[in-house]
């Protein structure tokens, strides 16, 4: 028997040298995984080591080595009990881990009171594609961060029942959502405005859809914006003032009404540069020679440098210059600005032009008084008078709907997604679009369009779960939670099983229940994961299903018994 090919193969796989090599590489892999998990992410450690196919094969080879080692001791004797028990315990433990990895899962379920659900969010990223013929969702496991697409390394996803292919060609870890307009038939007019300011790092885009709740927008409590079929008639009140600005003397204001524009001006010593300070304390510099005799629009005000004297003096009651040398520079300013009431928020109203379908009309008012108005075409902008905010018309569609799309953010904050396009068999490409989590993206092509989404996969439970109540008791005299109590209803339509259970801190609820399911691990366990202190009608539970649980614990117990037997019972015999 010991000279047979089978026995030689058993001895080969059960050699000590092979065991040392396997354990050394396994230890090195675990060390690298621990470093990766600590310095990068758990997801990267799982993708490259823990859940990589090579690691599973390596564990299978280790199990083969352990089994072969026990067979090399045949025929077994009493002194081999501890040795064999320990090795079979390790094999059982590894088998349980493999079963749990393949058939088990872990995720979170968001519950709202009296709203049944069976959808669990897992930690695995997938690409979901909507079938153009049957409307079904087809998903493919894909983690853009672990296998990043690039122009040199394309990722392809077939579209079911079509000749089209989705091609991912770029990755971004800082995608942000922005509003956009989509041209459709039989819809209302829509516009897309962009507001920019030196105080804002990125512009703010505001979509407005006529005849809907989206036709108005509250601009961060700074102003209100309305998109209307027609501009309402309002009063227009403009105030104007003029005054002399000197380099070495205080300014002299002309006769004005009780109100003033709020502007201040400072002239430099040689009279070449004029610094204007707005009512919002925003400075603006002008070269006198370039703006002499011309008007300039700043915010909602009109400023004109009407005259300049290098060496100002009064001669025969009229201002003149004694010389061309900058001994006493002075300028005459005229500033026109709308009268603003401080008791009302500004209002921006926009409406289509009555005679030109490609032009919009706008008016800015405060307290019912218009302080600026005009016409607006694509790409044109105007000053709002709200600090240094400027508004620009990006799009105007006579029939459109509002959508949301992803774009790479200029900042480092955002979500992870990828850029993709549709490609047919003849190589024709459609336009590219960014695909991000939580929002379905439409990819266009000459042969049709496809809806695609990217994000965490959903696992459907074989039963429904309903939250009856959620309470958070506190320690007496404090706001610190002492417990999290979720009263749950479980219902399985297939078997008609109905059960009510309570999930508490460190005491998860389980379904279907029963001692044998608890013993084998064929139970779904629900424990507290997250909660919102402002909304006690909702909670998030962690869901754990591990069918390899019994193997893991049996293997661990066998390892302990085997080690105890080898090191203690054997010595006493």
- Tell me the overall shape: elongated
Radius of gyration, taken over Cα atoms and rounded to an integer in Å: 37 Å
**How many β-strands, per DSSP?**
33
How large is the count of helical segments? 8
C-alpha termini separation = 31 Å
Question: Kindly state the mean pLDDT as a whole number?
Answer: 86
Strand content: over 45%
What share of residues is helical?
10-25%
Could you describe the largest sheet, including whether it forms a barrel? 10 strands, antiparallel
SSE-based structural type:
alpha+beta
Q: For this entry, what is the oligomeric state of its chains?
A: single chain
How many structural domains can be distinguished in the coordinates?
A: 4
Enumerate the spans where pLDDT stays under 50 for 5 or more consecutive residues: none
Textual characterization of the structure:
The chain is of the alpha+beta class and 573 residues long. The chain folds into 4 domains: 5-104 and 551-572, no CATH class; 107-120 and 459-545, Tick-borne Encephalitis virus Glycoprotein, domain 1 (Sandwich); 163-236 and 341-446, no CATH class; 238-338, no CATH class. 21% of the residues lie in helices and 45% in strands. Helix 1 packs across helix 4 (53-72) and helix 2 (16-39) packs antiparallel against helix 3.
Put the structure in a nutshell.
The chain has 573 residues and is an alpha+beta fold. It contains eight helices and 33 strands.
Outline the fold blueprint.
Blueprint: H1 5-13, H2 16-39, H3 42-50, H4 53-72, H5 81-103, E1 105-112, E2 117-130, E3 137-141, E4 155-158, E5 165-196, E6 204-209, E7 216-219, E8 223-227, E9 235-236, E10 238-246, E11 252-253, E12 264-267, E13 273-277, E14 283-287, H6 288-291, E15 295-298, E16 301-309, E17 312-315, E18 318-321, E19 330-338, E20 346-352, E21 360-366, E22 369-376, E23 381-383, E24 390-408, E25 415-423, E26 433-435, E27 441-445, E28 448-471, E29 485-492, E30 497-503, E31 509-511, H7 515-520, E32 524-532, E33 535-545, H8 549-572
Parallel strand pairs: 8-20, 9-22
Antiparallel strand pairs: 1-2, 1-33, 2-3, 2-28, 4-5, 5-6, 5-24, 5-25, 7-8, 10-11, 10-19, 12-13, 13-14, 15-16, 16-19, 17-18, 20-21, 21-22, 23-24, 25-26, 27-28, 28-29, 29-30, 31-32, 32-33
